[in-house]
Each structure stands twice: as structure tokens, then as C-alpha cells.
Amino acid sequence: MIASSFWLPPDISTHGSTIDLIIEYVHWFMAALFVVWGAYFLYCLVRFREGANPQATYRDTKAKPSKVAEVVVIIVEAILLVGFSIPVWAYYRSEPPGADKNPLVVRVVAQQFAWNIHYPGPDGKFGKSKPELVDESLNPIGLVDGEEDANAADDYVSVNIFHMPKDRDVLVRLSSKDVIHSFAVPLLRVKQDAIPGMEIPIWFKAEKTNEDAQEIMKRSFDLPASPEGDDAETFVKENRLRVTMAKYGSIETGSTISMEDLKTLSDANVTSIEMAPGYPVNIQCAQLCGLGHYRMKGQMKIYEPADYEEWVSTRDDDEFFDEDEFDDE
Amino acid sequence: MSSELLPHTLEPHPVTGMYNGKFGLWLFLASEVMLFGALFSAYILLRTHGDFPAHGEHSLSVPIGAINTFILITSSVTMVMAWASFKLNDPGKGKFYLMATVLLSCAFLFIKIKFEYLHKIHDGHTPDSHTFYAIYYCMTGLHGLHILGGVVVMLYFLLPGFGLWHKNPQQFTNRIECTGLYWHFVDLVWIFLFPVFYLL
Amino acid sequence: MSSDHHAHNPGFISKYVFSVDHKVIGVQYTITSLLFLFFGFTLMMIMRWQLAYPGESIPLVGGWLGQYLVDNNGVLLPEGYNALGAMHGTIMVFLGVVPLAVGGFGNYVMPLQIGAPDMAFPKLNMASYWVYFLGGVTMLSSFFVPGGAANSGWTAYPPLSDIANTVGTHPFWNGQTIWLLAMVLLITSSLLGSVNFIVTIVHLRVKGLTMFRLPFFVWAQFVTSFLLLLAFPPLEAAGVLQLMDRVFDTSFFIPSGLVVSGVVQDQYSGGGSPLLWQHLFWFLAHPEVYVLILPAIGIVGEIIANNTRRPLWGYKTLVYSVIFLGFMSFVVWAHHMFLTGMGTKMSTFFQTTTMIISIPSVVILTAMLLSLWQASIRFTVPMLFALSFLPMFAIGGLTGLPLGLSAADIQLHDTYYVIGHFHYVVAPGTIMALLGGIYFWFPKVTGRKMSTMLGHLHFWPSFIFMNTIFFPMFMVGLAGVSRRLWDQTEYVQGVDVQSWVRMSSWGAWGLGLAQLPFIINFFYSAFAGKKVGANPWNATTLEWAAPSPPPHGNFAEVPVAYRGPYEYSVPDAKEDFHPQHVPDSQVV
Lengths: 329, 200, 588
What we know:
- Chain A is an alpha+beta fold.
- Chain A is 32% helix and 21% strand.
- In chain A, β6 and β7 form a beta hairpin.
- Chain B has a domain of 139 residues: Up-down Bundle (Four Helix Bundle (Hemerythrin (Met), subunit A)).
- Chain B contains six helices and no strands.
- In chain B, α1 packs parallel to α6.
- By secondary structure, chain C is an all-alpha fold.
- Helix content of chain C is 62%, strand content 1%.
- Chains in contact: A-C, B-C.
- Chains A and C meet through α2, α3, β7 and β12 of A and α3, β1, α8, α10 and α11 of C.
């Protein structure tokens, strides 16, 4: 677990630890192989340099160790493949969670350069959508109105913000309305291409909420020596995606740090603060999709189950757009 | 020319049993198999992908296709006759059969364009009207370009390239043989295209 | 086969420009592809500025890059970044490494190593170069058309590539369409070349040179040629289909109901499959990886045998491994597509073949390493490059394992980890081997040796900077940063690894500087280097039997091969090397 916790982002999903385990085992195996090869290689370079060994040997070296090494490689690869990768993939791609598990079923329709999250509403049925009804600002997925299809009446579309509860299976039907995108959530160990003309199912279950994730990802940051100047500006710029994890004087928990805040902190003689990402569980696009590929980002809002139910009951189902600070960020 | 000096320009190599040009041509045909193989695979994938029309909805004219098939098979025969004539040291007959092959190929292209392409386009069946027509124009068009390429090569051997016959009849005959191999391959492609697009 | 047939004096044009001599064509390929390599690398040095210092004006060159790449302040635009990325990949692979490894080294060295006077089809060889040249010029011209160069990645995935560069551009002369046309030309060039190589290797070997006496480099070129011959046509087919999608609005790769920027794409009939392109593309592009690496392995084999002064360990094993790699490379392509909605059966098949293909690579590397045992290693400049290839190729190969296991690929796919992986194979791997090859065969081509001091000044910084560039990418990838992002600091993961990203960038600029000694060495040594004889490295293979530089027709008298390619340090012999062409009576 040392390697994975050191390099990989924290894992908040139920299935992610198996993926991390494979990544970790492969890397240990690679490192071992590389060290053995490297040690032998360096030994040869020194021991058999021209000066130390002016006369090379003509006959073939007996190479039993190399045969052993090759057999070991084959065995380890077979174990990784049959013991880990194939079962994990089979699990990841196997039958989606059935109705008995009461999964949250959501459609995700990717587009240049946003994620449309389509919730079926209380009836649990998705309304139809039609390409000709698409309106980029009012109806991004071209959903028909409630009169034409009763299933659509209670549907809800959220842009770039994926609301979900923890400890419940989430089944995503992934598609795209223009080009190929890839739905990647590093913290949930989820990645799947969104391909126009196809609807691909993926599923996952989160073990932690956003707040839990922030708690894991919080770190202590030393404040710049002076609240003014280049260092201070760099500090603010580099930490624009992070929020404070405690109350520092007049600066509330969960706020981003501005130049004025630095001054306030400096006056209060605070030298370091704890911060965590403001949107810890981000959604990236992992497949080149055009000039806005880099800014095609969304975020997961993972709630405690009760908080999720509250969000469902308070959201305005007539509004397609969730007016959130995330959009203008 | 340095090519006159190279080994196996004329005499077959003991391992492959072929002279350089013939071996090279077979390799080229292998790559052509991969090219048309990829396109046939694309056709199968598009057809099994979903909303491809049932047979008959976009049917092509079987009689015209059959006539063209017959023309091409005949041209393969005249091509063999041309090579055999040069091999038997009868350049007059060889030129005659080569010319006949050229004329038959032109007839094929004329029928293809006049009675098929233009007709279909007139009916609104353009490449962007349906994936079936897209792949149809693409594959038969590429095949047509291969025919056109063959015609250009044959015309070259009939006119400026014929000088080689007087200098080195064996090398000239070898080139006709290679042209023939290519020609049979192009015919073979059509033999696959015809049932795939017209009959299935 | 004396040289009197060549006595007529050709003019300058037919001697150096439209030459049919494989050596002139080899040099033409080498110089053209080195220029393309440097150009493609320059594009990357520009991109690395934006990655290291997002949103800041590009120093030095920012002002001249033009409206399609930079804004008024000289800051790289996102679409400019995508264009540079697509062109960097395309130029490095199709205009740089392959033409250098196959067109340059293959053309120059291979006929000499088999004792042939020329390639089997000299005119075809010339055509192959000029079609390549035309393809290169076409590709570069796309920087100057309205809308700029292709910007959908070197993989050109549709539907993005189908709809790219269509707004406000010429319907035909636009970036992506020119890219496709240039690719068709480059593919044609490769096909002409590969036919020529295979016929030459099979038919033009001199007496006594059986297939199992061929130098390992010739075997590598032989297998590479088959890969080019059979893998490139499907890409040509795919290119034609995409060209039709772009020019005639067909729907090969366009599914029904596409809506782009709120506009229903009803000019297309729909009904196509975006995945069709990926299958056709990767059917080529995976064997292409071996086209990039096999000639390099061949070069490393030659240099190692010569500088260890002992036979290459397991010659036949190496040959069989290379052939096996060639075959297997046709059945692993879909491991690039694990995340396109693939089921368990398909992924099991492709990850199993991927694990299998790693075995011959391990065997090859092991054989090269075993060749060092009980050797007498001379650390010449080419040997330094060849030795550095081994550990860096090992890193490149090993990091392919987690990507080949589909479950681990879920996290690592399309991150910087992938970029680190394949660059370790082709940049610190192949390109270092190719540079070593230039130092090794330079005396044969010019009759002069390259400067050793400048060689060291080239090697050591290059070796260090190669690793400075690419090793941090594994960390960036594991941290979860996607590739092809104009500004990775949009994500908190990207901000966390920004110092690694800057390290890569500084490494890239350092690597650019480190090429100066090479450029100086190349031109200085060509005109004023130390003159050497026919066989300055005391090597055994047939190219060293020809004079340096070899005349038209290559050999003063046709050589005969009496033994295998690497008879070094034979016991009880006068010298520590037995050239292939010297009869037994003269060496023992």
C-alpha cells in the first residue's frame, strides 16, 4: 500500500482498492526486475571493460539465470493477468447492479465541453430526447416536454455537477452528443469513453463523501513570508482551487484565499494554514475533444444518503440549469 | 542503367523461383489484399452495425453489374493472350491483345460511370445519402482507379514503353507478365465486389 | 559486376538530387528526417512552455507563430496547442523516426551488409524518397492554410477529426484534409520502400550469405518491412474513408443524431461507427510501434557485438524473437481501446496477447545484456548510445505492463503515464539508438570519423535530459492528470504535480541545447574529421568490406560470405575479428 498511497490520488470507491493493488504489484514487480537487470548491467560495465578484461570470451555463455528470469517473468505476468486483471475487469464490466440493490440510475451525456447529468426523477424513468430539440442554453440534451412524454415531466438535468449519495450503487449510462469524450473520475477509479451513437453502462459506489475526501486530502501550507509581491501572488494563483479547512480569524472555513486574506493572516501572525481541494472529486475529460478539452471539467457532489434525499426534494425540477458557483469558476 | 547489372532482374531466384519484379509485384498484391480487406471489413462492420437497409431497398442493377463482370473476365483472358503472344515472340499479336484489354477496360469504366454512377447520382443516391452508397462509391471507385491505373500502364507499354521489346524482349515480356498479375488481381477484387454489393 | 558500367559521368542533378543510388537516397532520407525530427521537437519545446508556465507569453518565438497558434500577446491558444500536439506526433513518427530508421539506415546500410550493388528496384527507391518528401512538404503546408494545421491528435479520432477545421476554412485546403492527403502520400512511400527491402533482402544476398548469416540489423529491417507492407494499407483505407467523410459528407464514422454546438448535423446521413476508425487505425499503429523499435534494436545489436568484441549472445533466439514480435504485433491492437466499451471476452483476449508480446521483448533485452558477460567492452561513442538504450528501453517496456492489464489501464489510460511509457520506448529508446547508429556508420558514409569529444558532449547531457523529461511523466500520470490538456492546472491534481511538469519542460529545453554539439560535430566531421580506412571499428560485417565511402556499385569486387556475422575473439586467431568476407585461410 505504500506505493499507491504515495503516488495515486486517494481512493474513495468500493472497487478502487483492487485496481490500486494491481498497479502497486506491477510496479513492485517492475522495480524488482529493473534493479536486478540494472545491477547486473552495471557490474558488467565495470568488470568487463576493455581495461579490466582485454580478451573477450568467444564461446556462448551458459545462461541458466536468464532462463530462470524469463520463466519468472512469464509466471508473474500470468498471475497478474489471471489472478487480478481479468477478474477485476469482469467485475467492472459484469452485469450492472440489479433492481434489488436499488441503484441510482443516471444518464450522462457528454458534449463539447460539458457534462450533462440527466436524472430520471421520482418515477425512475428517463424521458425521451431528440436531437432537433437541443438548445445549448435551455435544453442541452434535447429532452421532450412533459406533455409529449410523461416520463420527461419530472426529469432533472444538472450541468457539470454530479450529485450522488455515498454507499449506494450508481449506474451511469454514458453517451455523447458530438465527439468522443472520456468520463474520468480519478478519485473513484472510474474512466470510460463516451462515444456518440453508443450508450455504455458503468457503475461504482462511493465509500466517502466530499467532506471525507477533503479531510483525507487536506494539507498544511506555509504562507509566503510577505503578504505582497510575487511569492504571494503565486501562492494565491496556485491555491485557487483549494479552500481552508479551519477558521482562521475572520476567514471562514471553506473559503479560498485572496491577496487580502493573506494580509489578514499575516497581521494575525498565522504562518501556515490547512487547505484541501474545494472540489475534491473532479470529473475530467480524458479524450481529446477539441479546443476546450482542458476545461471540460465537472465535479461530483457525494452526500450522506440523507443529505442526498434532501437535495432531491429541494431541487427545482423545472429548471434545467443548476445555478452553481462552479460554472463561473 | 544500374538495374541492368542487378542479379535476378531476368533470371529467377533459386529460393523464390521468381525474378525481382514478379516477387515485388506479389508483395505489392499482398498489401493490396490488406487494403481491400480493410475496406471489406469496414463494409461488414457498417452493415452489421445497425441501421443498414434490407436488401432491395437500395438495390443496384444486377444486369449491368453482370455485363461488367463478363467484360472484366474477358479482359483477363485477353491479358493472358497478350503475355503468351509476347512469350512466343509474336509482338504483333501481343500488341493486339493488349489493345483489346485496354478497350475492354475502357468499356467497363464507361458503363460504370455512364449507366451506374451518373444514373444513381441523378436519382439522388449520392455518397452522403446513405452509408450504403458511401461505401459503394468508395470501394467501386477505388477499384475503378485501379482499372484506370492498369490502363495507363498498358498504354505505356503499347506506346513509349514498347522500345524495350527491341532492346530486351525478355524483360519486356516479364513486365507484361507483372501487369497481367496485377490485372488478374483487379478482376478478382471485382469478383468479390459484385456479389457483395449487387447480390447479397 | 565491375564498375565500368557506371563510368559515364552523371550530372549533379542525377547524381545528388534524383539519384537512384541507394547510398545517395539513404543520405537524403537521413538528412531530411533529421530536419523533421528537429522541427517536430521544436514544436514540443513550444508546447512545454505552455505546460510549465500556463497562460504566459512564449519567449523568443511567441511573436512569430501567427494567429492560428498564439494570441496577440504571444500566448499559445488551446487550438494552437492541439495543432502542435497533433503535428508533433505525426512528424516525429511518420516524418522523423520511421524515415530515419528505415529510409535512412535501411537504405544505406542494408544493401552493403548483404553485399548487394544496390536495391532491387533503384527507381522505385528514388520514387519512395520523393513521395516521402512530397508528403512532408504537404504536411508542413498545413501550418499556413486558414485555420491552421490539423488539431485532432496524431490519432485523428472521428467524429472530432471529421468536423475539425471546417468552420471558416477552405472546404478542401484545410488542416485535417491536408493531414489525410499527406498521410496517404507517406503510406505510399512506405509501401514502395517495403516491397523494395523485402525483394532486396531475399534476392540480392551475395554467395554464402544465408539467412542465418545475415547481420541482425538486416533481420530487423526484414521484419519491419513486412509490418509496413501489411499494416499500412488498412490505415490508407481508413484515411480514404475519413477523406470522404470530410469532402463528400459521407457518414462512415458519423453516427445518427449528432449535435455539434447546438446544431443538428443533418448534412450527414448518419449510421456510421466512430469505433471503425479506431480499429483500422490501431491495426496499423500497433505494428507501427514495432516499426519504430525494431530497426533501433537492430542497430543496437550491431554496435554491441562490435564493441563487446564477442558474438552477439543467442543470435538465433534474437531472430526468432523479432519474427515472433512481428506476428504478435498484429493481434494486440485493441489494447489501445480497452475503455471503448469492451466486454470481458475481448479484453481478456487482448490483454493476454499483450502479455505474450512482452515475452520476446524480455528475451531480446536479456540477450543483449548477456552479450556483455565476459566481453571486452570498448566505450566508444556509438557504444555509449547503444548501452544507454538498454535500461531506457527496459523502462519503456516495463511501464507497458500496467497499461496492458485492462484493470490497471482504467486508472492510467490517457494520462501522462501513457506518454511517459511510449516516449521511453521511442525517444530515449529508438532515438538514442539511431543517434548511436549515426556515430557508428558515419565513417562509412563520409570516410571520416566524428569527433569523440563532441560525441561525449552530446551523449551525456542527452542521456540526462531524456530522463529528466520523461521520468516525471510517470508521477504526473499516476497522480491522475489526463494527457493533451492545454492547462493541467485547471485541476487540483495538475497543480500538485506542477513542479514535475516544469522539470520535464526544462529537460526538454536542455535536450534541445544538447543537440548543438551533435550538429557541429556532424558538419565539422563531414568536412574536416579524421580520415579513416574502410574498417575503422575492426568490424566483421560486409559493409566494412567496401571502401569508405563506397563508390557507385559499392564493392570493388563482389564479396563472398564465409561465416556468420559476429565472429569476434575467435580463439587462436591472428586478430580479434573475422570479417565475413575473408576466407578461412587468411584469418587463422
